[in-house]
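User: Can you help me understand a structure? I only have the sequence.
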Amino acid sequence: MSRSDQGDEWVNKDVRVPEGAYLASSHETPGAERALLFDRESGNNLGPAEVRDSERLTDEELRQLMAICLAVGVAVGSAVTFVVAKAPDIKRGWNEKVLPAVKAKWNGVRSHGADSQVGGSGDEPADEPGQEISARPRLTLVNPEADKPTSGSAAPAA
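Assistant: Let's start by predicting it. Here is the structure, written out as tokens:
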């Protein structure tokens, strides 16, 4: 006498089987076991097994996880392929722009001490790769009184 599994829900459960005991085989569902314990030596019924919710993934959770892993793998593979294909351009940009600027800053710090200002205001980029950046700050002297017309005198001619 066998029954159909259609409409039945299988759930993941952890079953505690004490040492020296075994789970009864199901006569209705081939390959399934019942949560009923028997003693290995005597074959006596020990009663129902302890059952708790399983921490294993359901089939749907496993499918979702596999889809996420596949998407991440494709994204990482694409990024690696892009970087490998663009490696000469990246290396050229690094050698022509980044490395000279870093070396210039480092040389300025080493030659003038870590406490001095390097590169002036920092607003002006180096004109050419590898150009030394001045460690002296750029100062502009302004006389605020020179721009104001004084009473009784004409404004300075340009």
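Now, to help you interpret it: The two ends are 113 Å apart (CA to CA). DSSP finds two helices and five strands in the chain. Let me know which part you'd like to focus on.
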